[in-house]
Design a protein that fits this description.
single chain; 468 residues; mainly beta; eleven-stranded antiparallel sheet; six-stranded antiparallel sheet; elongated
Length: 468
């Protein structure tokens, strides 16, 4: 049977106590002498620790006890990327949004299209007539901004090709386009309901494409030939936007559809589909202007302590803003007299109340450990090592102040406590998908650090001591 132990007021071993319901009876503990003075001096535990608790042990030992503390708080650092890759995601992110914390973020998408799979010999008989042409994009139901507003966009023809050799494009890059829009749209999208949107394109462009088929023109024989005729589209926000949406940019998600019909006594509707190539032949050009916001001082390629940013931490992939932290005080623990080991360590991240009223929180935030400035990250697993931790976002629907993410960092702290300057871990907070993989998110997070007046993030540890 496990035994429970406590200290009496003289610091001596007390008797074992058990009730029929196995509920422990606690007594107030007064610790005297050198040990308490050192602990108070190093950790300021006077106002942030709890009374020692009972320890369940297999072997009776009256000298073991646990102290719970929230003094060893993380050092949160907010950073802004100089640039980040946007090609290869198969996500067309289009719109413009003004955020009170991050300012104005604008995103346009560049796409290349495949030649229609229909062989030219089967299209373009004398009885066939062009009707119209449209860009059709299927949403992935993600958004950023005010979904009650109108989404205003323009489609422009590209003047230069997407590079077939250098296939990595970044958020700061752009391509030349024809100034006159090939198509425009003003649409109110219901992101949780609507499956797709359609943007009517120029009839002149559609008729020109159809005539290539009518004439069996060589420019529709191969993809390379077609690419010289039509390089692709830039789809970008126009004036009056305050919402950004994400679309499936693969060949099954985005298509230019040419409508025509055959009339030989019977009207038969037909279509030609020019599907998005996706992959490295699609990327998003994303810019962020934080002027007038709290993140204005956070420059691209730089980082700041959370204390200089309103004692808040931030994650916004579209703005290139992220958060990382270290535990610099952890290495002081082995210097404490009578310290044995870390029993538990839990991080609780609290979003700032009202910050997510219009801008939804990131559903899953994973942790990645780095010892080389973030170039490689090792995920933080659950205690049983069966799955990656994602924060387990819990909503406080009543007041909102109890909304939080929680992480078990026991394994990390037990390793990091003995690390050197070269092996000390830095933990990055990153948006994850439901499948526990890194995901570029349109949601964002504004949370308190440990010093924020309300909604402070907390790091709680239980430390095991042995009083000799």
């Amino acid at each position: 049977m496990n035994r429970g132990f406590r200290r009496n007021n003289n610091g001596l071993c007390g008797e074992s106590i058990f009730s029929g319901t196995q509920k422990y009876m606690f007594e107030k503990i007064i610790v005297v002498g050198k040990y308490l003075v050192l602990v108070l001096f190093i950790f300021l535990l006077a106002d942030c620790t709890k009374d020692p608790q009972y320890i369940e042990t297999v072997t009776q030992d009256p000298n073991l006890f646990i102290v719970q503390t929230d003094t060893l708080q993380p050092a949160f650092i907010v950073y802004k990327l100089d640039s980040f890759q946007t090609s290869g995601s198969n996500k067309a992110i289009i719109g413009e949004t003004t955020d009170p914390y991050f300012g104005k973020t604008t995103s346009k998408s560049y796409l290349r299209f495949k030649i229609a799979s229909n062989y030219y010999g089967s299209v373009g008989s004398a009885s066939e007539t062009f009707d119209s042409i449209a860009l059709i994009m299927h949403t992935d139901h993600r958004f950023y901004g005010d979904t009650n507003s109108i989404w205003n966009i323009e489609a422009h023809e590209l003047r230069e090709n997407l590079d077939a050799v250098n296939k990595n494009y970044f958020n700061q890059q752009s391509l030349l386009t024809v100034p006159t829009a090939m198509g425009t749209a003003s649409i109110k999208i219901r992101p949780n309901v609507d499956d797709s949107v359609s943007v009517k394109l120029s009839d002149d462009f559609g008729a020109e494409v159809f005539n290539l088929y009518k004439k069996a023109d060589s420019r529709i024989f191969t993809q390379d030939d077609f690419q010289q005729f039509f390089r692709g589209l830039s789809i970008e926000p126009s004036a009056g936007n305050n919402v950004t949406y994400s679309f499936n940019a693969t060949d099954s998600g985005t298509t230019i559809r040419l409508y025509y019909h055959d009339d030989q006594g019977v009207h038969i509707n037909k279509t030609l589909d020019f599907k998005s190539e996706g992959g490295s032949f699609q990327f998003n050009s994303i810019s962020n202007d934080p002027t007038g916001t709290i993140t204005e001082t956070l420059l691209p390629g730089h980082e700041l302590l959370s204390s200089t940013l309103g004692n808040q931490i931030y994650i916004n992939d579209l703005a290139g803003v992220g958060t990382k932290f270290t535990l610099p005080s952890l290495k002081a623990l082995p210097t404490l007299p009578d310290f044995v080991r870390i029993e538990t360590a839990e991080l609780q991240v609290l979003p700032v109340p009202q910050s997510f009223a219009q801008f939804p929180l990131i559903n899953f935030i994973g942790l990645g450990i780095s010892v080389d400035n973030g170039s490689t990250l090792s995920p933080v697993y659950t205690a049983d090592k069966t799955s990656i931790q994602n924060g387990g976002l819990t909503f406080d629907d009543l007041k909102g102040t109890g909304t939080d993410y929680r992480y078990d960092l026991s394994a990390f702290t037990k390793v990091d406590i003995t690390s050197t300057i070269y092996t000390t871990g830095t933990i990055y907070l990153q948006p994850f998908s439901a499948a526990n993989g890194r995901e570029f998110s349109l949601n964002r997070l504004v949370a308190g650090d440990d010093m924020r007046a309300n909604s402070p993030s907390k790091f709680l540890m239980q430390l095991l001591f042995f009083k000799k």
